[in-house]
């Protein structure tokens, strides 16, 4: 995973800088999302790892995309195909979104709860996370997992805040066994 992250970084940065310069960040994110979905297709993925020449591979991908991508994204595909880096396109999208979130001071917060959260609870979590992360905007992604018994677990990048009953039980078990 580390290698793909490293490979994707310069492509994501170049794409993001270009998108900002042209004031097309949203359009670029949509085009990269579209390409990533295509790349994730099992048959397309098999073609990427085959021995087909980079020019033919790029043309195949561009033909599949059709008018959903512009000439600049086509150029990105040609460059990545030539360098045998098309397998990093999904990571390019991920890093592009991260760069956009940094620019917009936005954080994606994943919240796992045992029950559906009310709007009031979501607002409280958003306010708390804005203060904690010093962000202007919080995007909450809420999921339900009954195995946590009660409480919530919050994930933001590497940060994990475990306020679940199951998390406390696991911690107590660990402490008692030490």
Question: In terms of topology, how is this protein built?
Answer:
Blueprint: H1 2-21, H2 25-39, H3 42-48, H4 54-65, H5 71-82, H6 89-103, E1 106-113, H7 119-133, E2 137-144, E3 152-156, E4 159-162, H8 165-177
Parallel strand pairs: 1-2
Antiparallel strand pairs: 1-3, 3-4
Helix pairs in contact: 1-2, 1-6, 2-6, 4-5
Task: Please give a structural write-up.
This protein is of the alpha+beta class and about 180 residues long. The chain has 2 domains: about 1-100, Orthogonal Bundle (Peroxidase, domain 1); about 105-175, no CATH class. The chain is about 60% helix and about 15% strand. It has 8 helices and 4 strands; from the N terminus they run ααααααβαβββα. The protein has helices spanning about 1-20, 25-40, 40-50, 55-65, 70-80, 90-105, 120-135, 165-175; strands at about 105-115, 135-145, 150-155, 160. It has a 4-stranded mixed sheet with strand order 2-1-3-4. Strand 3 (about 150-155) and strand 4 form a beta hairpin. The longest helix has 20 residues, at about 1-20. The chain is elongated, with a radius of gyration of 20 Å. The mean pLDDT is about 90.
